[in-house]
Design brief:
By secondary structure, the protein is mostly helical. It has one domain. It contains 9 helices and no strands. Helix 2 packs across helix 5 (102-120) and helix 8 runs antiparallel to helix 9. The longest helix has 19 residues, at 102-120. The radius of gyration is 17 Å and the shape is globular.
């Protein structure tokens, strides 16, 4: 499958990241969803171990910060459980978070990504599971109104380069919606609604919170 490519307007990306950063009460949930997605990207070799470890540390620290938004949804509860399991999985690594060597970071990143990937997609092969982690975490973030619509659509669409086709029928639609967001600024409110609806439909068809 040829990866869907938008113009990737960096000015739009910067503006959306800035808009997301304005909502300080969402920092933990953004970090939690970003951690799950980072696990997928790490398995796919799109990011290195240092970046995943930083995402893990951010989520772990922000989880304890007062005033952070909670949806108490089944997904969020399960994702926090995966974070707790990941934290437990690295406790037997001596000085895990203090070891900044490449080997130490890789060991920690491997533990975290294995735990999280197993939570979201325990029965898929490694590549498909990694893509599922990205799409599911971003879809939930969109449905719960945590992630900016354009950023979530971009992340989901970006998994196209790692899959043969669009088996879950969400990658191409999200790529088209991201391109529409860039091309028609005056229609972004309607586009945002369509992105969230696409994410909601995808989750209803594809993924249920593990019991």
């Amino acid at each position: 499958m040829r990866a869907f490519r938008t113009k990737l307007d960096t000015d739009v990306v910067r503006a959306e990241l800035a808009a997301r950063a304005e909502h300080a009460h969402l920092r933990f949930r953004v970090a939690l969803d970003s951690l799950l997605a980072a696990c997928g990207w790490y398995v796919l070799a799109d990011i290195g171990p240092r970046r995943l470890v930083l995402a893990f540390e951010d989520a772990a620290v922000l989880e304890r910060e007062e005033g952070q938004f909670r949806t108490y949804s089944d997904y969020e509860t399960a994702a926090q459980g995966a974070l707790a399991e990941a934290r437990a999985a690295v406790t037997d690594i001596p000085d895990a978070l203090e070891d900044s060597s490449l080997e130490g970071l890789a060991l920690l990143a491997d533990r975290v990504s294995h735990t999280v990937t197993g939570f979201v997609a325990p029965r898929l092969d490694r590549r498909a599971a990694a893509c599922r982690v990205v799409t599911v975490s971003q879809a939930h973030s969109l449905v719960d109104r945590v992630q900016r619509p354009y950023l979530g659509a971009l992340d989901i669409a970006a998994t196209a380069r790692h899959l043969d086709g669009d088996p879950e029928q969400v990658i191409r639609p999200m790529g088209a919606l991201a391109a529409r967001w860039e091309a028609f600024p005056d229609s972004r409110h309607a586009c945002a609604t369509d992105i969230v609806d696409c994410a909601d439909d995808y989750l209803a068809r594809t993924w249920a919170v593990p019991s």
